[in-house]
Design goal:
The chain has about 230 residues and is α+β, with helices and mostly antiparallel strands. The protein has helices spanning about 35-40, 100, 115-125, 130-135, 150, 180-185; strands spanning about 10-15, 20-25, 25-30, 50-55, 60, 65-70, 80, 85-90, 105-110, 115, 140, 145, 160-165, 165-170, 200, 210, 215-220, 225-230. The chain is about 15% helix and about 35% strand. The mean pLDDT is about 95. Keywords: Metal-binding.
Length: about 230
C-alpha cells in the first residue's frame, strides 16, 4: 500500500560521540518546575508542575557547541527564551514507580522552550489552549543527546542562558521542584510513555524577550551548550 502523499520525515536527534540517531516520538514540557520561575510567573512555588506538549517537528537541532540561525516567528512581538534540561526516554510504560523511573531515561540534552509570550498570555486570559504561544515552527531548539551511560543522570549543575553575552538566566538543576524521575513517574500516570519521548524539564527564573538580530547561548554544566542567532 502506498501513501497518497510523501511520508513526513520523523524528527531525530544526533547522539554525542556516535553516528547513531535518536528518533523522537513526542515532546512533553513541564511548567513552573523551578521555585524562582514559578514565583516569576505569578504562581505559588508549592504548586505541582503541569505538562503541555509541542509537536515533534518543532525541534531545531543545533550542533554541540555550535551556532544556528533561528527564525523569529510570525504573529508575535514578544518572543521569549527558556533554557531547559531535556530528558530522552529509552524505555516506556504506564504508572512507572519513581524509584525506577531514572532507568527509563536514555540521555540528556540542552534545550530551549521558545514562547510567543503575548499569544500565551492572551490564551491564559481567555482560558484557551497554549499551542499558538508554545508550538511555533522550530520553537524547540535542542543540542545533541548525551547518553546517561556516559554522563550519568545530572541532578545538580549550573543551567544558564546568555543574551548577546549578558547572563539572563542562571539556576541549578538541584533547584527543580520535581526531579526528573518524579516527572517521568507523574507523566506516566497521564500517558503511556514510549521510547523516543522527550521531556523538557522546566526553566529557572530570568525568562525574557529576544529581538531580531540578537544571539542566545544556552549551557548546562556537564551536558553541553549551543548558540542561536535570531534572524
Amino acid at each position: 500500500m502506498l501513501s497518497v502523499i510523501p511520508n513526513p520525515p520523523r524528527p531525530a536527534l544526533p547522539i554525542h560521540g556516535s553516528t547513531d540517531l535518536f528518533p523522537v516520538r513526542r515532546v512533553y514540557c513541564v511548567g513552573r518546575n523551578y521555585r524562582a520561575h514559578a514565583r516569576e510567573m505569578g504562581a505559588d512555588d508549592r504548586d505541582p508542575p503541569f505538562f503541555f506538549l509541542k509537536p515533534a517537528d518543532t525541534l531545531q537541532v543545533v550542533p554541540e557547541g555550535g551556532r544556528a540561525e533561528h527564525p523569529y516567528p510570525p504573529r508575535t512581538e514578544n518572543y521569549h527564551f527558556e533554557v531547559e534540561l531535556v530528558a530522552a526516554l529509552g524505555r516506556g510504560g504506564r504508572d512507572i514507580p519513581v524509584e525506577i523511573a531514572g532507568a527509563h531515561i536514555y540521555g540528556y540534552a540542552v534545550g530551549l522552550d521558545m514562547t510567543r509570550r503575548d499569544l500565551q498570555d492572551e490564551a491564559k486570559r481567555q482560558s484557551r489552549p497554549w499551542e499558538m504561544g508554545k508550538a511555533a515552527d522550530l520553537s524547540a531548539p535542542i543540542g545533541p543527546l548525551h547518553a546517561a551511560g556516559d554522563i550519568g543522570h545530572p541532578q545538580a549543575g549550573a543551567i544558564t542562558l546568555h543574551l548577546d553575552g549578558e547572563e539572563r538566566q542562571r539556576g541549578d538543576l538541584s533547584e527543580m521542584i520535581w526531579s526528573v524521575p518524579e516527572q517521568v513517574a507523574l507523566l506516566s500516570t497521564y500517558f503511556e510513555l514510549h521510547p523516543g519521548d522527550l521531556i523538557f524539564t522546566g526553566t529557572p527564573s530570568g525568562v525574557g524577550p529576544i529581538a531580531r538580530g540578537q544571539t542566545l547561548t544556552a549551557r548546562i554544566e556537564g551536558v553541553g551548550s549551543f548558540s542561536l542567532a535570531v534572524a
